[in-house]
Design a protein that fits this description.
Elements lengths: L16 H12 L5 H7 L5 H5 L2 E2 L7 E2 L16 H36 L9 H10 L9 H14 L9 H6 L2 H10 L6 H12 L7 H31 L5 E5 L9 E6 L3 H13 L1 H6 L5 E6 H11 L3 E3 L4 H5 L4 E6 L8 H6 L4 E4 L10 E2 L7 H15 L15 E5 L3 H9 L8 H9 L4 E5 L11 H12 L2 E6 H9 L13 H13 L8 E5 L5 H14 L8 E5 L5 H12 L3 E4 L9 H8 L9 H5 L3 E3 L3 H19 L4
Helix pairs in contact: 4-6, 4-9, 4-10, 4-23, 5-6, 5-10, 9-10, 10-23, 11-13, 11-16, 19-20, 19-26
The protein binds Fe(4)-Ni(1)-S(4) cluster, oxidized and iron/sulfur cluster (SF4).
The site of Fe(4)-Ni(1)-S(4) cluster, oxidized (CUV) has 15 residues, from helix 13, helix 20 and helix 23.
Length: 647
């Protein structure tokens, strides 16, 4: 069993007490987790933290001296501004590539399903018609499969066309935004072309103009927003159906002692869908092995996807993923891609848990690998579920820690679901009740709390605090990703949390909820996984279109209090390109360049060129969640004033 040097100081790690119990247990057993590893590297490297470390060629690595002391240029002459902007772009590329790959896999899955050589069928027929119409595909008299194929080919075209703008950008963006992006020369042509061009421009001896590099970041934001988020959400809705209101549970009590517990972890729902399906079909086999049945629980965004469409309960967000294994009750953790800590394997080796990787390009040494492909998905899922069942008798009962507490949460708030709820108030014009609430000031504005949990942060604290501050001030809060886990675990997605809402917001939530047959809408709306940040974006676009303004004019903000992922940075950049203010509570690693910091964070009234002048919104870096919320509230009020909405 692995031993670490210092487990004596167990400090608080999470607002979720269950994970603190497990953390103590892991420390006492000498099991390393990300939390203990983070304590062994208490201070991150100051050069990397400031973004001034360059490793783009073999003459280096070079680093710029901090605070003007020491060398101010790399060997090639690249200065701090260039190095910081280039490093930021490198992070953007990484984030966008992950989401784009998610989109590409989903597009291929739709193509294969349409051509009939796959284990999947099209379930979201209505969404298919809607997306096809948006893309200008003729649907009259055509079979569903035929339309599905045309849509899939249009999606794949976004990875290969050589001129014009991406289909998915034209499908979803406001024309005024497209005009602005065209004028600045940042409109993406195709996803792979832009990623490859961006990798090239960050390499040694290429782009050395920090402004140009920052514009390259915005292109990556658009690639991510349209080619990653929108494309993935749309095609997943077509394949698996549009999410509808569901009620489920969060926290570690969702892991059941008498059941075969399988965790799905990662991002692309293709495999998880099948795991859920086969867990239900193979429950008799689990009973034969002595269990009461099979229980699938979610981690990270796979968890969000399965929650949104199947009401699967969620066990953990990113930062505590290893600790789920420490319950001693997990028979298998199935992973696909992204945000999977390699550390899970070592922890699993201390228990009977089997880590199962499923993609040929994401393996972990020591783990089981079951190759997954859409034409053999049923077979792979059955193999995996049976492996989990076979592990059930191998549990060490001395090592089990079970929890009873769960927290109820509503989820499934696709825009389609929100519109459906609103239409109970106004059938002819469903958006009107929402618009009225915003214009009258009953709702001051809309905030999307998104992104991750981060091992270096006190888990859930930032996400929950920003949310509560905004709710108190009558801001409508929607959430995605691991932030949604934080909010759900702390009662912000069930009716108990209504007490945190300001009076006028609570009135609106109740009116809409009751018309739709609930006691109220929950205080915050779960809109899905990270790629589902397309949904709040579409909601804002719909509201802006109806008000006859641009998204940038709306009293809307994004907040990312506890992120760890470059994916969250690039999602934020997509919102910035649309003129929405974005708060990040974790160091974005640009402080080594005053110039880059000014461009990202300065206001429209400041000297020099900056994001707010170009697009209408800026990056807000603030670690303190209470202060951050205050800034966001101020920004919301400024935009209300500019729009002439009631104060
Ligand atoms: Ni994609 S990116 S930790 S799982 S939200 Fe969760 Fe969400 Fe961040 Fe990763
Ligand atoms: Fe140094 Fe320039 Fe090479 Fe970067 S690209 S490592 S700054 S020489």
């Amino acid at each position: 069993m692995p031993k670490t040097q210092d487990h004596t100081h167990t400090q608080r790690i999470s607002l979720d007490h269950d994970f603190e119990v497990l953390y103590e247990k892991a420390c006492e057993a000498g099991i390393d987790t990300a939390f203990s590893r983070a304590k062994q590297t208490p201070v991150p490297c100051p050069f990397g933290s400031a973004g001034v470390c360059c490793r783009h060629c073999l003459e280096g690595p070079c680093r710029i001296g901090l605070n003007g002391k020491g060398p101010q240029e790399g060997i090639c002459g690249a200065n701090g501004d260039t190095i910081v902007a280039r490093n930021l772009l490198t992070m953007m590329i990484e984030g966008a590539a992950g989401h784009a790959e998610h989109g590409r896999e989903t597009a291929l899955a739709l193509l294969e399903a349409s051509e009939g050589h796959s284990d999947y069928q099209i379930k979201g027929v209505e969404k298919l018609y809607q997306v096809a119409a948006g893309l200008g595909i003729e649907t009259n008299g055509k079979a569903v499969e035929d339309i599905g194929k045309q849509v899939a080919l249009k999606a794949l075209e976004d990875f290969q066309k050589q001129a014009g703008a991406m289909n998915w950008l034209t499908l979803h963006a406001q024309q005024q935004s497209i005009d602005k992006w065209d004028e600045l020369g940042i409109t993406p042509v195709n996803i792979h072309l832009e990623i490859s061009k961006a990798v090239t421009r960050t390499s040694m001896g290429c782009d050395a103009d920090p402004i140009n590099l920052l514009l390259g970041c915005l292109t990556m934001g658009l690639v991510d927003g349209f080619g990653g988020l929108h494309l993935s959400s749309d095609l997943q809705d077509i394949l698996f159906g549009v999410p509808k209101l569901v009620k489920s549970n969060f926290r570690l009590g969702v892991i059941k002692k008498e059941m075969v517990n399988i965790a799905v972890h990662g991002h692309v729902p293709l495999l998880s869908e099948k795991i859920v399906e086969w867990s239900r079909k193979l429950s008799e086999e689990a009973k034969a092995a002595g269990a009461a049945g099979i229980n699938v629980v979610g981690i990270c965004c796979s968890g969000n996807e399965m929650l949104m469409r199947h009401g699967i309960p969620a066990a953990s967000s990113f930062s505590s993923q290893e600790l789920v294994i420490v319950t001693g009750m997990l028979e298998a953790m199935i992973v696909d891609v992204q945000c999977i800590m390699p550390g899970i394997q070592k922890v699993a080796e201390c228990y009977h848990t089997e880590i199962i990787t499923t993609l040929p390009y994401v393996k972990i040494a020591g783990s089981t690998h079951v190759n997954f492909h859409t034409d053999k998905a049923d077979k792979a899922a059955q193999d995996i579920v049976r492996k989990a069942i076979a592990n059930f008798p191998k549990r060490d009962h001395q090592k089990i820690t079970s929890f009873t507490g769960t927290v109820e949460a509503y989820a499934g708030f696709s825009n389609e679901q929100i519109i459906e709820a609103l239409s109970a108030l106004n059938k002819e014009d469903p958006l009107k009740p929402l618009l009225d609430a915003i214009t009258s000031g009953a709702i001051r504005g809309v905030a999307a709390i998104v992104g991750c949990t981060n091992v270096r942060e006190f888990q859930d604290w930032g996400n929950v605090t920003v949310a509560k501050e905004l709710l108190k001030n009558n801001v409508l809060v929607v959430a995605t990703g691991c932030s949604a886990h934080s909010l759900a675990k702390h009662n912000l997605m069930n009716m108990q949390g209504l007490e945190y809402c300001g009076e006028s917001l609570r009135g609106v939530l109740k009116a809409i909820g009751q018309a739709a047959g609930l006691e109220s809408l929950p205080p915050t709306l779960h809109m899905g996984s990270c790629v589902d940040n397309s949904r709040p974006a579409d909601l804002l676009t719909a509201v802006a279109n109806r008000l006859g303004v641009e998204v940038k004019d709306l009293p809307a903000v994004g907040s990312c209090p506890e992120t760890h992922s470059p994916k969250a940075l690039v999602i934020g950049t997509y919102f910035l390109a649309n003129g929405v203010d974005v708060h990040v509570g974790v160091n974005p690693q640009v402080s080594g360049s005053q110039f880059v910091t000014d461009v990202l964070c300065n206001g429209a009234k400041d000297d020099g060129l900056n994001l707010e002048k170009l697009f209408g919104g800026k990056l807000i870096y603030e670690k303190d969640p209470v202060k951050a919320a205050a800034i966001l509230l101020r920004r919301i009020e400024e935009k209300r004033l500019a729009l002439g909405l009631s104060s």
